[in-house]
Amino acid sequence: MTQTKKINPLLKAALEFGPLILFFVVFMRLRDKTVAIGGTEYSGFIVATLVFIPVLILSTLALWRLTGKLAPMQIATLVLVIVFGGLSVWLNDPRFFKMKPTLIYLLFAGALGISLALRRNWLQLVMSEALPMSAEGWRILTQRLVGLFLGLALANEVVWRSMSETAWVNFKTFGLPAVMVVFFVLNAKLFERHALPKDE
């Protein structure tokens, strides 16, 4: 098993959230403009996507190099960003990139749902070292996460299909991470109730 190396938390946060913040900054600066590249005009959204993809690749590689490990969520996110972000840039169509969060959340909800059906809690296998809980606690948390991911997938579809690009970028950059933070704060009692004794 590859041993995970510890790195500075601020550096880790910068590598994880830096690409998203850069996407937001580039979009906000270019959202009302078009940029000509190779004789083709691209919107600010497409240019921000074009910047985001290589930066995310580099930051993910840096995380892997520094920690010796990547979470399944990070790998899946990187693959979908490359595929759907690449399609958006290649076809000059922002819809593909906007659908990416929906697919990510559906993928995670499906994977967690299958693990529950098979009685093999994959979330527990991945996170048990960081968050020691009983099997019952992991089962409850996994059920709640399935519901959360399905809700986020639906919310993303509603926002990108019915609101402006700026509203979707704000939702993606600030709304989705905030929902995840609130979710885990609201589940603090679950973590306390099902925490394993220290000697275990």
Automatic annotation (TrEMBL):
InterPro entries: YciB (IPR006008)
Membrane topology type: Multi-pass membrane protein
Main location class: membrane
UniProt xrefs under Pfam families: IspA
Keywords: Cell inner membrane, Cell membrane, Membrane, Transmembrane, Transmembrane helix
GO cellular component: plasma membrane
Membrane-traversing stretches: 13-30, 42-64, 70-91, 103-120, 140-159, 171-191
Protein's cellular compartments: Cell inner membrane
Protein function: Plays a role in cell envelope biogenesis, maintenance of cell envelope integrity and membrane homeostasis.
Sequence similarity: Belongs to the YciB family.
Protein name: Inner membrane-spanning protein YciB
Source organism of the structure: Paracoccus laeviglucosivorans
